[in-house]
Specification:
The chain has two helices and six strands. By secondary structure, the chain is of the alpha+beta class. The strands form two sheets. The chain has a three-stranded antiparallel sheet with strand order 2-1-5. A three-stranded mixed sheet has the order 4-3-6. A hairpin with an 8-residue loop joins strand 3 and strand 4. The longest helix has 16 residues, at 17-32.
């Protein structure tokens, strides 16, 4: 399980490395383009049945901490879904991974790859 650290504080969001990798791609690419948006997630059941949100902006201090050393394969359909979410009025919401139904050249967004991957 990886973690997202925001402004020097670990968020109460423990997430598997695969999902965190997809979030990293979306968040970093949007922030590089000077976007500002809300990121929301459902809280762990041990903390109730609520949800949490943070405001992300290009000056935000973010640290993506992964439990494992291997970069997972990238599901381009999931990236498309997360980018669309981030561009919506409700902001980026972590959703379950869908089946990957895209092809490599579907859109400029879907061509994003994880840092350190061989697909550059």
């Amino acid at each position: 399980m990886g973690q997202l650290i925001y402004a020097g504080e670990a968020l109460d969001l423990h997430i598997d490395d695969r999902a965190l990798t997809h979030l990293q791609i979306v968040i970093v690419n949007l922030l590089r383009r000077d976007h500002r948006f809300v990121f929301s997630w459902k809280d762990d059941v041990t903390h109730g049945d609520g949800r949490s949100s943070i405001w992300l902006h290009p000056n935000a201090s973010l640290h993506f901490s992964f439990a494992g050393g291997r970069t997972p394969s990238i599901n381009r359909s999931w990236l498309e879904q997360l980018y669309a979410s981030a561009s919506s009025g409700s902001g980026l919401v972590l959703t379950p991974e869908p089946a990957d139904t895209t092809v490599a050249d579907d859109s400029p967004w879907s061509r994003a790859v994880a840092p350190g991957s061989d697909d550059a």
